[in-house]
Amino acid sequence: MADYSKQNLLQLIKRIGVYLSTKVSKILNIQDVRSFWAIAGLAVAVIFTWRALRSPNGSQRRQPKRRSPSHNNENSLPSGVSSSSQDSRTQNATDEFFQPANATLGQIVRQRLSDGRKVTCRLLGVILEENTPEELQNQATVRLSVLEVLSEITKYSDLYLMERVVDDESEERVLTALENAGVFTTGGLVKEKVLFCSTENGRMSFVRQLEPDWHIDSNPEITSQLARFIRQQIHISTKSERTASSNVFNSTSLEQFFGGV
User: Fold this and answer.
1) Is the pLDDT assigned to residue 179 strictly greater than 90?
2) What is the Cα–Cα distance from 201 to 203, expressed in whole angstroms?
3) I need a labelling partner for 235 at 20 to 30 A (CA). Which of 64, 149, 212, 253 fits?
4) pLDDT for position 259
5) CA angle (201, 161, 155) in 5-degree steps
6) What is the distance between the terminal CA atoms of the chain, rounded to a whole angstrom?
7) How far apart are CA 152 and CA 109, in angstroms?
8) pLDDT, tens digit, for every residue of 96-109?
9) DSSP string for residues in 41-102
10) Nearest C-alpha neighbor of 234 from the set 219, 249, 256
11) 7 pLDDT exceeds 60?
């Protein structure tokens, strides 16, 4: 997981470089002394941020053994979201440093996904109220609270939805529910990007073939098995179960992951 930490740190340095370049160019144009001191203050903040990103391993050695290393992660994430990854702290520090004070939902979604260009997501337990394929034989209900987040994800990423079903009627029932909820009329999602299969292995195969930057799932076994192949994942569960992988975030809902909206 050291590679992820290095990548995140390099990404932070690049973004800081672009930001400073823009500010310096503005100073040269307007010759504003106050702006110069603002840049100086920002440079100091950058140095302290860089030092903070380098220190998690050393600081943890001074902590009592009984203290959970994931405790600090949970404090830096929205309520209901946790991660056991030290690399996620680097990403969280990056997000907090660059996130505007009054960020819109679209800005939060884009920043939390780290500009990930492709996202895969299961339907049961995340987009739908139902939790098992058997329930889809009777009904399919879209969670209205997730629609706004879903729409924002499709604006920035190539989104694929997928689910295991037991019959063709269930497949049609899901597509109709998504259409009635307006999923196909807002954002960039089309019916061709809603995939169905008959086994969980088939669903894992979809994810691996698509090679997404992020995968969202509610099955801890699937999440654990995909952790070796997918850069980042979000595990959705209202239960106490947690996926203890370094590149997996745990949240009670998709909308909770993006700041409790």
Assistant:
1) yes
2) 5
3) 64
4) 73
5) 145
6) 30
7) 7
8) 544 555 788 888 98
9) HHHHHHHHHHHHHH-HHHHHHTS-TTS-TTHHHHHHS-TTEEE--HHHHHHHHHHHHHS-TT
10) 249
11) no
Distances (CA, A) of 141 to 73, 95, 135, 147: 33, 33, 10, 12
Q: Among all chains, which residue has been given the structure tokens 């997981």?
A: 1
* pLDDT band, very low/low/confident/very high, at 87 (cuts 50, 70, 90): very low
What count of residues does the chain have?
A: 261
CA distances from 8 to 40, 72, 199 (A): 24, 18, 35
User: What is d(CA 152, CA 110) in angstroms, rounded to the nearest whole number?
Assistant: 8
Q: CA-CA distances (angstroms) from residue 202 to 110, 198, 205?
A: 29, 7, 5
**Residue 250, number of CB atoms within 10 A of its CB:** 26
Handedness of CA 120, 257, 255, 170 (dihedral sign): positive
Q: 83 is written with which tokens? A: 């991660």
User: Tokens 């992660």 belong to which residue?
Assistant: 73
Please, which contacts does 130-137 make with residues 24 or more away whose CB atoms are closer than 8 Å? 131/218, 133/163, 133/164, 133/165, 133/166, 133/170, 134/166, 136/163, 136/165, 136/166, 136/170, 136/173, 136/174, 137/166, 137/167, 137/169, 137/170
**Is pLDDT above 80 for 112?**
yes
Half-sphere exposure for 235 (CA within 13 Å, toward CB) = 26
- 122 or 19, greater pLDDT: 122
Q: What is the token pair recorded at 160?
A: 């694929």
